[in-house]
């Protein structure tokens, strides 16, 4: 860290692991500092995922000490919706390194938590969040204009080569209507849900170089 003490910033816990008695290492996503890790001791050691927190930390190096951890909002996730939240948290952990700035990532996560807690269709929430997260990692997705897509066409997207149209039902391709919905932030039609899921899964796998996501098998 560049400073001995941080300013208070909103954030959430992505993951926590024991360090020693009464302390844990917490992986965080914050509004001002992006993705960071800190040691949580004492009262701060009770922080948990799916809670919006006011956070601050002290100390230099890779693992400063969490000094502020005040709850602002709890997202009550249970069952499959809890698994969906864990999946999104793992996705951020695997896609983005520590100290990455991560513009809008906190907003993406808390927006998804809110929708999951309100019992909205989980698959639609995941597709929207996946697109937003990958857009922050791969600027090419942000330049896909839904107005320029043909609903009846099929498209394939590769991070190295961009978007191009392909013959119908080409492996790894997605219908234009599904891609339009993803790119515009709308819900994907139910009859295109599987195609959009497979399309996003292939993009995520390309960024992860084939490394598996532990929570994906639980969805």
UniProtKB/TrEMBL annotation:
<keyword id="KW-0234">DNA repair</keyword>
<keyword id="KW-0227">DNA damage</keyword>
<dbReference type="GO" id="GO:0006302">
    <property type="term" value="P:double-strand break repair"/>
</dbReference>
<keyword id="KW-0233">DNA recombination</keyword>
<dbReference type="InterPro" id="IPR003717">
    <property type="entry name" value="RecO"/>
</dbReference>
<dbReference type="InterPro" id="IPR012340">
    <property type="entry name" value="NA-bd_OB-fold"/>
</dbReference>
<feature type="domain" description="DNA replication/recombination mediator RecO N-terminal">
    <location>
        <begin position="9"/>
        <end position="70"/>
    </location>
</feature>
<comment type="function">
    <text>Involved in DNA repair and RecF pathway recombination.</text>
</comment>
<dbReference type="GO" id="GO:0006310">
    <property type="term" value="P:DNA recombination"/>
</dbReference>
<dbReference type="GO" id="GO:0043590">
    <property type="term" value="C:bacterial nucleoid"/>
</dbReference>
<protein>
    <recommendedName>
        <fullName>DNA repair protein RecO</fullName>
    </recommendedName>
</protein>
<comment type="similarity">
    <text>Belongs to the RecO family.</text>
</comment>
<dbReference type="InterPro" id="IPR022572">
    <property type="entry name" value="DNA_rep/recomb_RecO_N"/>
</dbReference>
<dbReference type="Pfam" id="PF11967">
    <property type="entry name" value="RecO_N"/>
</dbReference>
<dbReference type="InterPro" id="IPR042242">
    <property type="entry name" value="RecO_C"/>
</dbReference>
């Amino acid at each position: 860290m560049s400073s001995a003490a941080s300013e208070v910033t909103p954030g959430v816990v992505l993951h926590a692991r024991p360090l020693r008695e009464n302390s844990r290492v917490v992986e965080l996503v914050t509004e001002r500092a992006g993705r960071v890790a800190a040691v949580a001791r004492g009262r701060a050691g009770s922080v948990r995922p799916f809670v919006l927190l006011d956070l601050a930390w002290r100390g230099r190096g890779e693992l400063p000490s969490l000094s502020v951890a005040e709850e602002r909002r709890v997202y009550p996730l249970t069952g499959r919706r809890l698994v969906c939240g864990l999946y999104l948290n793992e996705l951020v952990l695997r896609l983005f390194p520590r100290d990455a700035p991560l513009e809008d990532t906190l907003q993406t996560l808390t927006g998804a938590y809110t929708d999951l807690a309100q019992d909205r269709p989980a698959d639609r929430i995941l597709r929207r969040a996946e697109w937003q997260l990958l857009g922050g990692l791969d600027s090419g997705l942000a330049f896909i204009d839904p107005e320029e897509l043909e609903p009846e066409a099929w498209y394939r997207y590769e991070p190295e080569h961009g978007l191009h149209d392909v013959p119908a039902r080409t492996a790894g391709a997605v219908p234009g209507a599904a891609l339009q919905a993803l790119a515009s932030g709308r819900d994907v039609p139910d009859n295109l849900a599987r195609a959009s899921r497979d399309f996003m899964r292939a993009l995520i796998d390309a960024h992860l170089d084939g490394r598996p996501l532990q929570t994906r098998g639980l969805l």
